[in-house]
UniProtKB/TrEMBL annotation:
One of its GO terms (biological process) is monocarboxylic acid metabolic process. CDD domains: SDR_c (cd05233). Belongs to the short-chain dehydrogenases/reductases (SDR) family. Gene3D superfamilies: NAD(P)-binding Rossmann-like Domain. InterPro entries: NAD(P)-bd_dom_sf, Sc_DH/Rdtase_CS, SDR, SDR_fam. PROSITE patterns: ADH_SHORT. Signal peptide: none annotated. This is 3-oxoacyl-[acyl-carrier protein] reductase. It comes from Halodesulfovibrio aestuarii.
Length: 249
């Protein structure tokens, strides 16, 4: 077997939502690849976690709700402080699972503003930095719920679909100017809320042909490949990584 090395023409990677188990795994792989890191979290607990694990990284407190809410009043100072990354990994997502007919209107509005408007504004800022240097590679962490949601995942699925649309169109608009994108749709993952769901619903994983959930390390290695020069022509599309879950009835 020949090992095919991953090549990175850039030097700086920004991981948004890096304090999650998945974000931490991605940050480690990119750090091991020699990339300089800018990492964000939305809480003090998250900031402390990534600061401890990655002491040389640039750490930012980035709250999507505040970004979206303040957009009409003033530019977000945190976004303006990001120093021209060549790579972006978007792991950000707040938690909101309610039945469509039962959710409180104010909760729906806040969730959508945070996870759609806030994400769009972040992507606008960072993609313009990439456009200025005519080089950038973006990976959005999506979910198979975008295509096949469980009951109670309507708002989550809608926000993931909206995120995929934003990243897809960015790749269409800027692909000819050196900025390309990809969304990675994940099935059940052994991390965070995924572990909680798997523990409560062990039969769900048994329906997957692979008979297990995806590990954070597997996701991180795949993200690194999708960011690398090897995958530049994977642009404006979504790739599913779920062990075959969505291939079944």
């Amino acid at each position: 077997m020949h090992n095919i090395p991953m090549r990175f023409s850039g030097e700086h990677a920004c991981v948004l939502g890096a304090s999650s188990d998945l974000g931490m795994a991605v940050a480690k792989v990119l750090s091991d690849a020699g990339l300089r890191l800018t990492l964000s979290a939305c809480s003090e607990k998250g900031i402390a976690r990534i600061s401890s694990a990655f002491p040389t990284a640039t750490i930012l407190k980035l709250n999507l709700a505040a970004v979206a809410h303040n957009a009409t009043m003033q530019p977000d100072a945190t976004l303006e402080s990001i120093d021209s990354p060549e790579y972006l990994v978007d792991c950000m997502q707040s938690n909101f699972e309610e039945f469509v007919a039962g959710a409180e209107p104010v909760d729906v509005a806040n969730y959508m503003e945070t996870n759609i408007s806030g994400r769009a504004i972040c992507l606008r800022y960072i993609s313009r930095m990439m456009l200025a240097t005519r080089f950038g590679r973006c990976v959005f962490i999506s979910s198979t719920a975008a295509a096949l949601p469980n009951a109670g995942q309507g708002f989550y699925a809608a926000s993931k679909l909206a995120g995929e649309a934003l990243y897809q169109n960015l790749g269409v608009e800027l692909g000819g100017r050196g900025v390309t994108t990809c969304s990675l749709r994940l099935g059940y993952v052994q991390s965070g809320r995924g572990n909680t769901f798997i523990e409560s619903n062990p039969q769900a994983v048994k329906r997957c042909p692979a008979k297990r959930a995806v590990t954070p390390d597997e996701v991180a290695s795949t993200v690194a490949f999708l960011l690398s020069d090897n995958a530049t022509m994977i642009n404006g599309t979504a790739i599913t990584m779920d062990g075959g879950l969505t291939a079944c009835k």
